[in-house]
Amino acid sequence: MNALFNKRVLNLIPVIFFIIISMKIGYMYNHLLEDEQNFAKEQAKVLNAYSMSHRNYYQKLFIDKSILLNKKTIKALPAYSNSIISKDFSYKNSLNITERTVSSRARNPLNQADDSELKAIKFFQANPDKEEYFTQNSDKYYQYASALRISKRCLKCHGDRQSAPKYIRDNYSKSYNYKIGEVRGIMSIKVPVASVQNYFLRSFIENVIYDIILFIALFLGIMYLTKKSKTINHLLEKEIEEKTSELKNTYVIDKLTKLANRRQLIEDIKLHANAPHRHLAILNIDAFKDINDFYGHTLGDKVLKDFADTFAKECLSKENTIYKLPSDEFAVFSTKDMPQKEFVKNISAILTTTHKKEFVLDDNKIFIVVSCGIASNEDELMTTADIALTTAKKNNTNLVVYNKELDISQKIIENTKNVTILRNAIQNDNIKPFFQPIYNVRTKTIEKYECLVRIVQDDGTIILPYHFLDVAIKSKQYFHITKIMITKSFEYFKDKDYEFSINLSAADMTSDEMQEFIIKNIQEFPQPQRIVFEILENDKLGNYHDVKKFMHIIKRFGCKFAIDDFGSGYSNFSHVFELKVDYLKIDASLVKYISSDENSQIITKTIINFASRLGLKTIAEYVEDIESFEILEKMGVNHIQGYYIGKPQKDLI
Known about the structure:
Blueprint: H1 2-30, H2 32-63, H3 78-92, E1 98-102, H4 115-126, E2 132-136, E3 141-149, H5 155-158, H6 166-171, E4 183-192, H7 193-227, H8 229-252, E5 260-261, H9 262-271, E6 279-285, H10 288-295, H11 297-317, E7 321-324, E8 329-334, H12 340-356, E9 358-361, E10 364-367, E11 370-376, H13 381-394, E12 399-401, H14 406-427, E13 431-440, E14 445-456, E15 462-463, H15 469-474, H16 478-493, E16 499-504, H17 506-510, H18 512-524, E17 531-536, H19 544-555, E18 560-566, H20 572-579, E19 583-586, H21 588-591, H22 598-613, E20 617-620, H23 626-635, E21 639-641
Parallel strand pairs: 5-7, 11-12, 14-16, 16-17, 17-18, 18-19, 19-20, 20-21
Antiparallel strand pairs: 1-4, 2-3, 3-4, 6-8, 6-11, 7-8, 9-10, 13-14, 13-21, 14-15
């Protein structure tokens, strides 16, 4: 039976291969034109970048008088030398690409634009915000161009005639009174269509030959393996079963405590979604960060493990399942047929036992206090239990049971209070920027700061933004905060040499009023290249066109952009390609567990490698200990930010 089956499979393989290779050839053919155009454009862009660098370098040599301008040296100027170099280059490159610097009103006939190049010049004159032009003008070549616009350094020779170098004044009568931004010509690059087609044809044939060779090798290998299939299948099935079991345990078991983790809790809740009785308690160890800070993370982990062992014994005796959640949180889930009061009574008894338990650290005895939130038979069981836990911690109560009015009434009270605090803070000038240092891993120095908003009340109380930012948005006061942060941060850093960053929302970037305010302040700032604007990765960038247009305008001043919380959303990689940012700030949710969670390490390393290949810099946030610092340093991250480097302060440290 197996032999017959294997024979049929072998007979099917050539048919399947033929179908696959036919589909692949069809796909490649359908995308050939697009691929050719993309290839031609990329080749042209690389050449353009090199030529512009060459042009700028030699212009600078004349401007700073490293080369004196005279009858002999003028031949080194790009306007003169480019046509000679371009002619030689066109003969020597394998794709027969031509590259020229041309103008619609060239003094040198060799630099006069042809019809296709004149179209490109008119395009740039009609579109002052465009930097490149690409089209297929005929079946002979692709036309790529970049605009040669007048900049400040051009005016050294082509501004006021009296200010021009003597050689220019004596020999030229029509080289003056150019205007900044004026299009004087283009860098013109033509890529022959035939050369690109030949390149892709060779590549296409090589791919087909490679696929055929690969198929033959695979087919012969399958024939051999089929003869041994019975033994191999048995071994493979056994190994797959073992690996599946191992991976499942890795996925759903907490490494430190060996308890089921948050993923397993979510799966269990889904599995019992229709159970008649569902009870959940979420517990948080109070002030556990103080234990870590005082005794260190190694002993802190020991406390978590000892607590988990004690807690698990108590839970098992009452027919409950215990889970280890991230950080210092635990959960208890039960589907036992009992009223909520009995479950609450059981959890209370467990808390009483654990509160009496002595934990020994370095010969010191400590006691642990736990806050707990409980929810039963709710649609969103984890969310409602977490609301109860949050309420318990706010009210300094050990245990709170969720009811439907708890979150609503609490939120109304909290929102009313925060709106009043925010309004008073704006009126009394209590919105203050705090500055958190950013450490350069390579130079071992602090060279940047992030400006973080705080409310500093008259009595010195500092209120963090998560208390008032949502309220600010809903009460239409968010723009006030952004304006205050920009004004005060710009003022603080205007006479300092540090780069500094400020957070911007999508609303900030798409508001005409805010755009005008931001541009005005940038224009008045002495060194705009030290300004970085951070965009929240998980912010809803609904209008990409307006955001990209805003960024394009701001980048012209020399400012930079960073994507904040990178790795937290679903569309982050597309943000990078669309928005052309300078920095990626790796999300705290990844960095926080970098020393203990293998998945966080893999994702973080992937982001760092991804950024490096694109020429972007990375900043790791939320670095709180030397272990995390050293891991990130080995991964190749560029900058570190977090309490290990320094907390946000009113003044630079």
